[in-house]
Write a structure and sequence with these properties.
With 230 residues, the protein is of the alpha+beta class. Helices cover 43% and strands 20% of the residues.
């Protein structure tokens, strides 16, 4: 079963030797745990885990003028309030324009967006649109009437002792390891904090590779067993 907030907190108190330490009351440890599980999720997301995929419709506002280019604009804070903040938060955006032309918008940086309009062969089209993020908003070109963003949502903060983490059980230990590293930083042990974070990140990568290898092996065995029964 997934670990509860109480279990995570109790384990951290033991492992970090915080018994009776008034610097780390339960609310502060809860905050560190929630930050740590976000860190674990971000690392797993970067490695390719797709557990937290979600989608939301975007509310397209009146076409906006950006660098002289007319685009559609949507507020991330309103339309995707639970989005995970990481370099690859948005997977893609499915779009439909006024002529019912459907497309899949892919993300570009602002510099690439501007450069595309300087080359007539690279200008985005309704069937191959692009988007970029700026100031907590999404800009889409060409302008669209409707759009749906597919993205990674952030894990839910643990607010009660009985609440369970959404981090897979195989990676729960890294919540505690990142939290303990942060505790060492708070206590002034900066070198220890950095070393612990680097080791946790390295070990998490190895654990994920083993996890994927096990999943692939189980899938292979299942298919072989299925083929043998046919």
């Amino acid at each position: 079963m997934a670990a509860t907030l109480l279990q995570l907190r109790d384990q951290i108190i033991i492992d970090a030797n915080l018994q009776g330490n008034s610097l780390f009351p339960s609310p502060r440890l809860n905050r560190l745990i929630n930050l740590a599980q976000r860190r674990v999720q971000t690392e797993l997301n970067g490695l390719g885990m797709k557990k937290w995929e979600a989608s939301d419709s975007l509310t397209m506002s009146t076409a906006a003028n950006f660098l002289g280019i007319t685009t559609s604009i949507s507020s991330l804070a309103t339309d995707c309030p639970n989005m995970l903040e990481s370099p690859n938060s948005i997977i893609l955006i499915a779009t439909v324009d006024a002529d019912d032309v459907k497309g899949i918008a892919k993300e570009v940086d602002i510099k690439s967006f501007e450069e595309q309009f300087k080359n007539t062969y690279l200008v985005p089209t309704a069937s191959q649109p692009v988007f970029f993020r700026l100031a907590n908003s999404i800009y889409i070109y060409p302008p669209m009437t409707t759009a749906t963003a597919y993205y990674y949502k952030a894990v839910t903060d643990l607010s009660s002792d009985a609440a369970t983490t959404e981090i897979p059980i195989e990676f729960e230990e890294y919540i505690m390891r990142y939290a303990i590293a942060e505790i060492n930083g708070i206590l002034g042990n900066l070198d220890k904090k950095i070393a612990q974070e680097q080791k946790a990140t390295q070990d998490l990568m190895t654990a994920y590779e083993k996890f994927i290898g096990k999943q692939n092996e189980n899938f292979r065995i299942k298919n072989n067993n299925k083929a043998a029964l046919q």
